[in-house]
Design goal:
This protein is mainly beta. It has helices at 11-18, 172-179, 185-194; strands spanning 5-7, 24-26, 35-38, 43-50, 53-60, 76-78, 95-100, 102-107, 115-121, 127-134, 147-154, 165-167, 202-206. The chain has 3 helices and 13 strands; from the N terminus they run βαβββββββββββααβ. The protein is globular and about 50 Å long. One of its GO terms (molecular function) is peptidase activity.
Amino acid sequence: MCGRLSQYSGIHDFVAALSMPNALVNSAGDLPLEKYNGAPSQQLALFHLEDDVLHADMVRWGWRPAWAKDRAAPINARVEKVAHGPFYRSIWPNRAITPINNWFEWVDEGGPKKQPYLIRRRDQAPVLCASIGQFPGGGREPGEHDGFVIITADSVGGMVDIHDRRPVVLTPDLAREWLDPATPKERAEQIVLHQGEPAEAFEWFKVDRAVGNVRNQGPELIRPIADPLL
Protein backbone atom coordinates (compact mmCIF):
# COMPACT_ATOMS: atom_id res chain seq x y z
CA MET A 1 0.00 0.00 0.00
CA CYS A 2 1.43 3.32 -1.06
CA GLY A 3 1.22 6.33 1.18
CA ARG A 4 -1.81 8.18 -0.12
CA LEU A 5 -5.49 7.94 0.72
CA SER A 6 -8.69 9.98 0.72
CA GLN A 7 -10.76 10.82 3.78
CA TYR A 8 -13.24 13.39 2.55
CA SER A 9 -16.53 12.30 4.14
CA GLY A 10 -17.64 13.56 7.55
CA ILE A 11 -17.11 11.64 10.77
CA HIS A 12 -20.81 10.95 11.12
CA ASP A 13 -20.87 9.29 7.69
CA PHE A 14 -18.08 7.00 8.82
CA VAL A 15 -19.83 6.29 12.14
CA ALA A 16 -22.99 5.38 10.24
CA ALA A 17 -20.97 2.86 8.20
CA LEU A 18 -19.75 1.25 11.42
CA SER A 19 -23.35 0.95 12.69
CA MET A 20 -22.21 1.45 16.27
CA PRO A 21 -24.83 2.54 18.84
CA ASN A 22 -22.12 3.61 21.28
CA ALA A 23 -21.84 7.15 22.54
CA LEU A 24 -19.41 9.20 20.45
CA VAL A 25 -16.65 11.50 21.65
CA ASN A 26 -15.74 13.41 18.51
CA SER A 27 -12.65 15.60 18.44
CA ALA A 28 -12.47 15.43 14.64
CA GLY A 29 -15.32 17.88 14.07
CA ASP A 30 -18.68 17.59 12.35
CA LEU A 31 -17.78 19.01 8.94
CA PRO A 32 -16.62 16.91 5.97
CA LEU A 33 -12.92 16.13 6.38
CA GLU A 34 -12.24 17.03 2.72
CA LYS A 35 -8.83 15.37 2.68
CA TYR A 36 -8.60 14.01 -0.86
CA ASN A 37 -4.85 13.45 -0.81
CA GLY A 38 -3.92 12.29 2.69
CA ALA A 39 -0.23 11.53 3.17
CA PRO A 40 2.10 10.14 5.84
CA SER A 41 2.69 12.33 8.91
CA GLN A 42 -0.60 14.15 8.35
CA GLN A 43 -3.35 14.11 10.96
CA LEU A 44 -6.11 11.72 9.90
CA ALA A 45 -9.36 10.66 11.56
CA LEU A 46 -9.12 7.46 13.60
CA PHE A 47 -11.68 5.47 15.63
CA HIS A 48 -10.99 3.59 18.84
CA LEU A 49 -13.19 2.30 21.63
CA GLU A 50 -12.65 3.19 25.27
CA ASP A 51 -14.99 2.26 28.13
CA ASP A 52 -17.69 1.41 25.59
CA VAL A 53 -17.44 4.90 24.09
CA LEU A 54 -16.38 5.42 20.50
CA HIS A 55 -13.69 8.07 20.10
CA ALA A 56 -12.94 9.90 16.86
CA ASP A 57 -9.56 11.65 17.03
CA MET A 58 -7.18 13.24 14.59
CA VAL A 59 -3.95 11.26 14.83
CA ARG A 60 -0.69 11.36 12.88
CA TRP A 61 -0.32 8.70 10.18
CA GLY A 62 2.90 6.93 11.09
CA TRP A 63 4.29 5.54 14.33
CA ARG A 64 7.50 4.12 15.76
CA PRO A 65 8.44 3.08 19.29
CA ALA A 66 10.51 5.53 21.30
CA TRP A 67 13.59 3.32 21.01
CA ALA A 68 13.50 3.24 17.18
CA LYS A 69 14.99 6.66 16.61
CA ASP A 70 17.23 5.44 13.79
CA ARG A 71 14.42 5.00 11.26
CA ALA A 72 11.45 6.83 9.81
CA ALA A 73 8.05 6.10 11.33
CA PRO A 74 6.34 3.33 9.32
CA ILE A 75 2.82 4.00 8.07
CA ASN A 76 1.89 0.34 7.54
CA ALA A 77 2.39 -2.90 9.45
CA ARG A 78 2.52 -6.32 7.78
CA VAL A 79 -0.25 -8.55 9.09
CA GLU A 80 2.10 -11.55 9.04
CA LYS A 81 4.36 -10.02 11.71
CA VAL A 82 2.44 -7.30 13.52
CA ALA A 83 1.11 -9.42 16.39
CA HIS A 84 4.42 -10.99 17.39
CA GLY A 85 7.33 -8.73 16.46
CA PRO A 86 8.96 -6.43 19.02
CA PHE A 87 8.45 -3.27 16.95
CA TYR A 88 4.67 -3.07 17.45
CA ARG A 89 4.43 -4.98 20.73
CA SER A 90 3.43 -1.97 22.80
CA ILE A 91 0.60 -0.88 20.51
CA TRP A 92 -0.73 -4.24 19.29
CA PRO A 93 -3.44 -4.11 22.01
CA ASN A 94 -4.45 -0.58 20.90
CA ARG A 95 -6.80 -1.47 18.07
CA ALA A 96 -8.34 1.18 15.86
CA ILE A 97 -10.14 1.68 12.57
CA THR A 98 -8.99 4.17 9.96
CA PRO A 99 -12.10 5.06 7.95
CA ILE A 100 -11.28 6.16 4.40
CA ASN A 101 -13.05 6.64 1.11
CA ASN A 102 -10.28 5.20 -1.06
CA TRP A 103 -6.54 4.78 -1.40
CA PHE A 104 -4.07 5.23 -4.25
CA GLU A 105 -1.39 3.07 -5.82
CA TRP A 106 1.16 3.87 -8.53
CA VAL A 107 1.84 1.45 -11.41
CA ASP A 108 4.79 1.39 -13.79
CA GLU A 109 3.13 1.14 -17.21
CA GLY A 110 6.24 1.94 -19.22
CA GLY A 111 5.77 5.70 -19.43
CA PRO A 112 8.05 8.41 -18.07
CA LYS A 113 6.07 8.48 -14.83
CA LYS A 114 4.11 5.89 -12.93
CA GLN A 115 0.34 5.94 -13.34
CA PRO A 116 -1.74 6.48 -10.18
CA TYR A 117 -4.82 4.33 -9.61
CA LEU A 118 -7.64 4.97 -7.15
CA ILE A 119 -8.95 1.90 -5.30
CA ARG A 120 -12.32 1.93 -3.55
CA ARG A 121 -15.14 -0.41 -2.59
CA ARG A 122 -17.38 -1.36 -5.49
CA ASP A 123 -20.41 -0.25 -3.47
CA GLN A 124 -18.57 3.01 -2.65
CA ALA A 125 -19.20 2.49 1.07
CA PRO A 126 -16.50 3.72 3.45
CA VAL A 127 -13.38 1.57 3.64
CA LEU A 128 -12.77 0.44 7.23
CA CYS A 129 -9.04 -0.27 7.62
CA ALA A 130 -7.75 -2.28 10.56
CA SER A 131 -5.16 -0.20 12.40
CA ILE A 132 -3.21 0.02 15.64
CA GLY A 133 -1.59 2.98 17.31
CA GLN A 134 -0.86 5.23 20.21
CA PHE A 135 -3.58 7.83 20.63
CA PRO A 136 -5.30 10.01 23.24
CA GLY A 137 -7.14 8.01 25.84
CA GLY A 138 -7.71 7.52 29.54
CA GLY A 139 -7.88 11.27 30.01
CA ARG A 140 -4.45 11.74 28.40
CA GLU A 141 -3.99 14.69 26.08
CA PRO A 142 -2.53 14.17 22.60
CA GLY A 143 1.22 13.65 22.74
CA GLU A 144 4.21 13.94 20.42
CA HIS A 145 4.59 10.16 20.23
CA ASP A 146 1.01 9.54 19.14
CA GLY A 147 0.50 7.94 15.76
CA PHE A 148 -0.98 4.95 13.99
CA VAL A 149 -0.23 2.38 11.30
CA ILE A 150 -2.59 0.62 8.91
CA ILE A 151 -2.31 -3.17 8.81
CA THR A 152 -1.63 -4.56 5.32
CA ALA A 153 -1.82 -7.97 3.69
CA ASP A 154 -0.76 -9.54 0.41
CA SER A 155 -2.92 -8.53 -2.52
CA VAL A 156 -4.79 -11.27 -4.37
CA GLY A 157 -6.67 -11.55 -7.62
CA GLY A 158 -6.47 -8.71 -10.11
CA MET A 159 -5.39 -6.27 -7.43
CA VAL A 160 -1.90 -7.80 -7.58
CA ASP A 161 -1.47 -5.98 -10.90
CA ILE A 162 -1.89 -2.68 -9.07
CA HIS A 163 0.20 -3.38 -5.97
CA ASP A 164 1.42 -6.37 -3.99
CA ARG A 165 0.12 -5.05 -0.64
CA ARG A 166 -3.25 -3.66 0.39
CA PRO A 167 -4.90 -2.55 3.63
CA VAL A 168 -6.81 -5.13 5.65
CA VAL A 169 -10.38 -3.90 5.18
CA LEU A 170 -13.07 -5.16 7.53
CA THR A 171 -16.84 -5.45 7.22
CA PRO A 172 -18.74 -3.36 9.79
CA ASP A 173 -19.45 -6.45 11.92
CA LEU A 174 -15.78 -7.41 12.03
CA ALA A 175 -14.68 -3.79 12.51
CA ARG A 176 -16.83 -3.59 15.62
CA GLU A 177 -15.38 -6.84 16.91
CA TRP A 178 -11.84 -5.63 16.15
CA LEU A 179 -12.45 -2.38 18.02
CA ASP A 180 -13.93 -4.05 21.09
CA PRO A 181 -11.28 -4.20 23.87
CA ALA A 182 -12.99 -7.39 25.09
CA THR A 183 -12.02 -9.22 21.90
CA PRO A 184 -9.08 -11.49 22.82
CA LYS A 185 -5.77 -10.75 21.12
CA GLU A 186 -5.77 -14.18 19.53
CA ARG A 187 -9.18 -13.58 17.96
CA ALA A 188 -8.08 -10.12 16.78
CA GLU A 189 -5.10 -11.68 15.04
CA GLN A 190 -7.32 -14.20 13.27
CA ILE A 191 -9.63 -11.41 12.07
CA VAL A 192 -6.86 -9.51 10.30
CA LEU A 193 -5.06 -12.63 9.08
CA HIS A 194 -8.03 -14.39 7.54
CA GLN A 195 -11.16 -12.24 7.39
CA GLY A 196 -10.24 -9.09 5.48
CA GLU A 197 -12.47 -8.16 2.54
CA PRO A 198 -11.57 -10.01 -0.71
CA ALA A 199 -10.26 -8.30 -3.83
CA GLU A 200 -13.69 -8.75 -5.44
CA ALA A 201 -15.10 -6.13 -3.05
CA PHE A 202 -13.01 -3.40 -4.74
CA GLU A 203 -12.69 -1.58 -8.02
CA TRP A 204 -9.88 0.59 -9.35
CA PHE A 205 -9.30 3.10 -12.13
CA LYS A 206 -6.72 5.60 -13.35
CA VAL A 207 -6.68 9.11 -11.93
CA ASP A 208 -4.74 12.25 -12.72
CA ARG A 209 -1.03 12.33 -11.87
CA ALA A 210 -1.68 15.52 -9.90
CA VAL A 211 -2.36 13.28 -6.91
CA GLY A 212 1.39 12.69 -6.78
CA ASN A 213 1.88 16.18 -5.34
CA VAL A 214 0.74 16.20 -1.73
CA ARG A 215 -0.04 19.91 -1.97
CA ASN A 216 -2.85 19.16 -4.41
CA GLN A 217 -6.30 18.68 -2.89
CA GLY A 218 -9.80 18.58 -4.28
CA PRO A 219 -12.43 16.25 -5.74
CA GLU A 220 -10.78 16.33 -9.17
CA LEU A 221 -8.11 13.99 -7.76
CA ILE A 222 -10.60 11.14 -7.31
CA ARG A 223 -12.24 11.33 -10.74
CA PRO A 224 -11.40 8.65 -13.33
CA ILE A 225 -9.47 9.78 -16.36
CA ALA A 226 -9.96 8.45 -19.88
CA ASP A 227 -7.30 6.08 -21.14
CA PRO A 228 -5.89 7.63 -24.34
CA LEU A 229 -5.28 4.13 -25.72
CA LEU A 230 -8.96 3.20 -25.59
